[in-house]
Amino acid sequence: MIEQLDSLLHAGIGICRVGIDGRESLIGGLFLTGLIGSLTHCAGMCGPFVLSQVAARMEAIPLECMSEMRRLAGAALLTYHLGRATTYGVLGAAAATLAGILGGAAPFRWLAAALLIVAAGFLLSMALPGIKALAGGDGETWWSKGIGRMARPLFARPNGWRGWLLGVALGFIPCGLLYAALAAAAA
User: Fold this and answer.
1) Tens of pLDDT along 69-102?
2) Structural domain boundaries enclosing 31
3) Number of structural domains found in the chain
4) Are 162 and 154 in contact (CB under 8 A)?
């Protein structure tokens, strides 16, 4: 059993190595962007969604049943984060697949460079807020309003499948950091 797991792990590392070789700096840069972005951008933008879910879960637990383990379990929001990861994974795979199909065709060989430039533009627009004002964007679009209407009922009891659906829905919220990651995945 251990030998099978070991061989499976080595096979997986071998497959990953093929995708990583020659792209170490890009992957490292994306990792740092995600790490720094999650502390600076994501905590402020999506933190209220997480806090409202934690509050809803804590309110549902009777005081006499409250314990340290219950508090930690209520704050973990595993199904919500699995929902977000599902959305991000599907979007990233779709972007990479589409770019792989188009990038193989001779007329689209420039696509990878163009997508990296787009990713840089999204990251720059997050770093320099004045760029968004020049573009005339305030973030309130028909898309974000539609997602808000769809997600609102799920906030009432964000447990189990409702928490997962909430994560899936909120994974589609317009986000420059997400767009940059998708453009890099497609490149």
Assistant:
1) 777 776 678 888 899 999 999 998 888 888 778 7
2) 24-186
3) 1
4) yes
